[in-house]
């Protein structure tokens, strides 16, 4: 899970280079194309290793399609947000995802409810509000980041729900194929000129995203969604580091305070969970 949480921001960093026009060509690449290429190239990369594991019946399960639709919409939304917003701020706003994941896990999957963890979830939500600044500075880009987080929260719960339907690699392949199909028309209609920088960044974005999501599926097969949720917060650290080191962008004071609250909430939630297990 920790490795996955580093790979996914790395893929989004490459995606920001493309959608914000920061590559050597200087022309922004449409988020729809970057999202489609992630799914299409990811499916091609893993096909030789998983095709024999995928049974046609898997694509007859509506939950497989719903999960793929959630992640496809989430990736398109976050790439749209990254085209205009700092990467650290986008990831902080995106962290309504673990909040949504925990609440849905308790409600739909009947996982244990904890008053202390609910309080920490509220603390984390306060952190998101500090970053997003609703009503006094919220931008459309941050709205897309929030939307991406909501889609992602639903995706995390769906991953747990269907974790025993098929092997992790088969689930990943179904997600990639369906995501590519859903985004084919808007993706291909927005195809840019494939220069060497654009092609290279597209491949990096797709590879990091594919590997990160494979590890995510494996993690959710081995543990409860509510237990995995706190580890998702390590994306904040990577997002902030990539933003500072690659783009030279640091969050403002309110955003830094919000990121700190999110990290405290996630780590404290993990500590409570581990203490409960030890007891």
TrEMBL record:
Alphabetized Pfam families for the sequence: EamA
UniProt cross-references to InterPro entries, sorted A to Z: EamA_dom
Residue stretches spanning the membrane: 31-52, 64-84, 90-109, 116-132, 138-158, 170-188, 194-219, 231-248, 254-272
GO cellular component: membrane
Protein keywords: Membrane, Transmembrane, Transmembrane helix
Start and end residues of each EamA domain: 29-132, 140-265
Signal peptide residue numbers: none
Name of the protein in its database record: DMT family transporter
Organism: Gymnodinialimonas ceratoperidinii
